[in-house]
Every structure is written in C-alpha cells, then in structure tokens.
Write a structure and sequence with these properties.
single chain, alpha/beta, seven-stranded mixed β-sheet, six-stranded mixed β-sheet, 15 helices, 15 strands, 33% helix, globular
Amino acid sequence: MDFGGDDMDAGRRGTDGTEVGADTGLDSGRGGTNPVGSGPDAGTTDTGAGLTGVSGTRGVGGVTGTGPTGTTAAVDTTGTTSTVGTPGTGISHPRRGTSGRTRALATEAVHAGREDLARSGLHAAPIDLSTTYPSYDSRGEAARIDAFAADGAEPEGPPVYGRLGNPTVARFETALARLEGTESAVAFASGMAALSAVLLVRNAMGLRHVVAVRPLYGCSDHLLTAGLLGSEVTWVDPAGIEDALRPDTGLVMVESPANPTLAEIDLRAVAHACGSVPLLADNTFATPVLQRPAERGARLVLHSATKYLGGHGDVMAGVVACDEEFAGRLRQVRFATGGVLHPLAGYLLLRGLSTLPVRVRAASASAAELAGRLAADPRVTRVHYPRIGGAMIAFEVAGDPHEVIAGVRLITPAVSLGSVDSLIQHPASISHRIVAEGDRHGAGVSDRLLRMSVGLEDVDDLWADLDAALGYATAGRAAEGGGLNLREEHAGSAAG
C-alpha cells in the first residue's frame, strides 16, 4: 500500500491496536480530533499519533497523523519525522497588515481582496456583471489599450471591456496571489484554459518543447501528448528532467500530489533541475493550505479552481499564480482567446477562499482516518495517501472497482473533487480514460484504482458507506446465482 504517494508495503494493524509494519517510526493509536496541519514549516512534530501498520520499501513516503496537541508529522521509512504544520497558524506570507506583523494564511483567506470594502461602506464583495464600461475620453482609452498591448499590465483607471478584466474577478486574483505568495494571478474559465494559455505564451516565444512528469490530470496529459497547441512533450521521471532539457524547452510541468495516485515530488529539487526553464506545478490537490510551490522555486502555480478553491461544486474556473511579467503575457492570451472567467464565478471563488483553510484541514483529518482504516482492510490491496496530508485518497481494491462505485450511497459517484461532499470515481474509466492504457499503467494508474475526494461529512458515516460498498464489491460475484441482492441490501441499510 502506498502512503506518501510512492510504492510502499503495508503491515496490518494487530488486534491489540499496536503497530505491525516495520521501519516506520510510527506509534500506534489515533490522535485527537484536531485537524491536519496547514502547511510545511509551520509547526512541530508529533510522532505518537500517526496511522499504524505501514512499512516502506523506497524511503520516500509517510503518513500524516493527528495528535492531541493538534500538531502533525510526516514520517518516512527511515523513522525520521518532518514538520507538516500546526492547525490555526497556516503559512505566513510576505504581505503585512497595518500593524506590521505578518498575517497568517487563515487571516489572508478571509481578508485578501476585500481590504477596501469596509471603507467603501460594504461588507460583501460586489458583483460587477458589466461587459463594457462607458468612457468619454477616447484618447485615454487608446493610450490604455496601447499600454496593455505592450506588456499585458492591468489598465490603470476604470475598466475598459470584459475581456481585458473585471473588478470582481480581480479581487479573486489578488486574494489567490496572496495565498500562494506570488506577485500576481490570472484567472480563466477553466483549469484547462489556464494551462492552454501557459502553453500558448511559451509557444509564441518559439519554446514549444515541454518536459513533464507523469501522472498528471488526464486532460493535461492529453493536451500535451496530442500536441493540440503545437507543443512537443518529453515524459520523464523527476531524476531525468535536467537531461531532457533542450534549447527550445519552454516549460517543465509536474503535479504534486499527483492526480490520481497522489505521488509526491520534491519541488525544490525539480526547480533546481529546471535551471532557467520555468517550472509549472499543479497545486490543485494540495492548495496553498498544504504547500506553496512558489516558495520551492516554481515560477508558475496552476489550479483547477473548480476544485478546492471554489469548494462547493458550483463553479468552474482555472487560475495561474505567477510573477507579474508572466501574468502580463497570460492576460494578453486571455484577451486574444477569450477564455475569461465570468464575474459571478469570480465572486463564488472569492467567497470559497474565505473558508479554504477550515475546509481543507477538516477534510484532511477525515481523509487521514479513512486512509488508516482502508490500509487495515483486507479488501483493499493498496492505499495511496500523501505525506503532506490532504483530503484526497486513492486505493486499489481486491474486488471489482466498478461495483464499489455502484455500491456507494452517501458518497457521490462523480468526477471532480474538492467539494464539501465526498466524491469517488474510477480514474481508468473517467478522469484518465483519455490517456493511453499503457501510459496510464506506466504512471501507476491501475484498473483497480479508485480516487476519493473526502468532504465534510462525519468520518464514521463515510466509513460505513465505504465498508458496505467494499463488501458488495467483494461478495457480489460469490452471491451471483444465489438470489442475494446485495445492492438492495446496501440501499436498505443506508436508508435505515
């Protein structure tokens, strides 16, 4: 079973609840109810509160525990501990409040992009739905459009046109940049529109070659492999990045934790290997609550904002956090291609950010608990859970994964992730179906792998649903011809 996003063997929890797995440095027992920590380098370690029964073979993985002090630790296979974070403090960032002290991530999530509201006599951010804006100064408009054409900087003064920018969307961009610790952020109509804009920026400079590490989100993989935007991709392991660089390499792309296996990459080491080539890190799964790739050397941080940033399954968007120079080029591509974010979506995303730390920490605590229960279940052959924690779990089943999907009643069987309700899907059938079978398998996406996005439901209710669905999947074939309808039995128990 995999904890920490890499191949690891799993020991089973003994009947007395003590640790059975070897070489983990983990003590037995479940910690308190405090949520998973908020990010790297933010707290102290707690080695007495991790999941049990996990041993490793490659020395890179670990599990996140929750302890009575609220601290968390990631433990690798040598038994050493590393800090993951302390709840309630979050990741600090360089912006300072009026008192001069650095504000925590939780504070910025609530206030970034909204600082002017109280002075304007407002409490909630306004939604500006205008597509165009009147101006009696056509000479001034011409000068501002010329300035935008030169470097893509946001026009000074009142807005001009919806494709150039929108005040509501700009609030979300400001807030996300603050949370990721970058100079700027540029929002798009979807995560794929955001990635496409990055590729178009580099292609326009004659830098069409991309070095990428699998696994990536299935549609990202397809966009690169199919060359739909004229890009050429070289797939490598992280250790092969430097050797794969060419004079026309415009981008190195990684995703950590990766979709769907939750494999993790040392972003600092990868950024060093990239040299002067920009590193794009997809941070959708981790969010800035758990890691900030820009602090580890990534020049571009990609989010499918549809997921955790929105957080409620009701908005589609993408965003790239980056330096202002690259942001200007992205704005120019957005203007030319029209992949703009609707103002209502910008409003929903800004609202979603205000609860992001609370949602991620609460869901992560439940995910860590479920990962431990799955690791001890004989119906599960492998569990993937990242060292930094998070609300995503991937696991491989001994039975038919399609029957698990058919058997859930509380958990929603659907693509996507990051919502307040829990979702489960079969990557080989949906999110990664577009990736060639051999490439899927080579990236660790097996046909028995299920990916679960843990929401905010009670963890025992989620486990009861998983337990019943796993039982249905493993017993279904044995019951065929015997007249036992496990699907109806499960539905009846869920309803009761």
